[in-house]
Amino acid sequence: AFGGVTLAARGVLEAFWGSGDDDAARALLDGQSRGGHPVGCAAALHEIETLADLLECDASSETDDVNKTRVYFSDDVVWELSTIKSVAGAMSYGTVLVVTLESPQTTLLVVDRLKKHCGILARSIGNVVYIMVSPLTGEEDCLRLSDNLARVLKDVSRHPPSENLTD
Questions:
Q1: DSSP state for residue 129 in the 8-state scheme
Q2: Which residues are registered as beta bridge partners of 143?
Q3: Tens digit of pLDDT for each residue in 46-92?
Q4: How far apart are CA 156 and CA 106, in angstroms?
Q5: I want to staple 77 with a disulfide (CB 3.0 to 4.6 A). Which of 26, 127, 128, 146 is the partner?
Q6: Nearest 5 degrees, angle CA 80-CA 134-CA 63?
Q7: Distance of CA 10 to CAs 14, 23, 33, Å?
Q8: What is the DSSP letter of 20?
Q9: Which helix (H) or strand (E) holds 41?
Q10: pLDDT tens digits for 137-167?
């Protein structure tokens, strides 16, 4: 068995545990399945160092955009996804693109097609599809991911899951 440790700032720990019964829904209930694994920790440390370097470069930049939050998936992209027939709703939150579909069967089909036909690993929980990118992911890659998702969603909308059980 591998050993490891998960380190977190007090604020992260408090957000994870919440401060009372009513905060349970806000806690990070999904957890980190590989949080204590040494390789996962090494990858996280590398990411933190890289982000720190980027923030240092941004701080020394002469532009006025230094304090703006980066948008990974634009409002236009989210709006386009939300108008697709099988989609009940869409939103983005930082590096995560979230699309709620009308049925869990459709969700499983979309995730499967993204992987098989586009090489994209997406996660689903119930009828929700999640696409997560790194804070280092470029704008072009985010657009490619959302374009592929839109294409798969439109295809699945034209051919509902009952017609695609063997696909």
A1: E
A2: none
A3: 878 887 777 776 556 555 554 456 789 999 999 999 999 999 999 99
A4: 7
A5: 146
A6: 85
A7: 6, 16, 20
A8: S
A9: helix 38-59
A10: 888 999 999 999 999 999 998 887 665 444 4
